[in-house]
Design goal:
This protein is mostly helical and 101 residues long. The chain folds into two domains: 57 residues, Orthogonal Bundle (Arc Repressor Mutant, subunit A); 37 residues. The protein is 66% helix and 0% strand. The protein is built from four helices and no strands. It starts with 12 loop residues before the first helix and ends with a helix.
Length: 101
């Protein structure tokens, strides 16, 4: 690490779920739980919102995508391939058009 750089900590799914559970079930304030765990209150708020929004699909892990994100990535790849094929066909058409003259 260079000077002034701090290493970004990563938390696993279980840690995040347990932190949110402490807030929800323990009826404790987010700032209290965050301070006890040594994390930022804003981060804990985000985790809580993500868990409420996505339920069991929340926190899929590094490199793992939810079903919607995976579908979007697949469609983006297909679109890029289709564009490349289209561009190749346009170039081929231009080459064959010139030969016919």
């Amino acid at each position: 690490m260079g000077p002034g750089k701090t290493e970004r900590r990563q938390y696993d799914k279980e840690f995040k779920r347990e932190a949110v559970r402490l807030v929800v079930e323990g009826k404790r304030h987010v700032t209290d739980v965050a301070r006890d765990l040594g994390i930022g209150a804003n981060m804990l708020h985000r985790w809580k919102g993500k868990l409420e929004e996505d339920g069991e699909r929340a926190f899929p892990g590094k490199g793992k995508l939810g079903a919607e994100e995976e579908a979007v990535r697949r469609l983006e790849r297909e679109l890029e391939e289709t564009r490349e094929e289209r561009d190749i066909l346009k170039k081929a058409l231009a080459v064959f058009s010139r030969r016919g003259k």
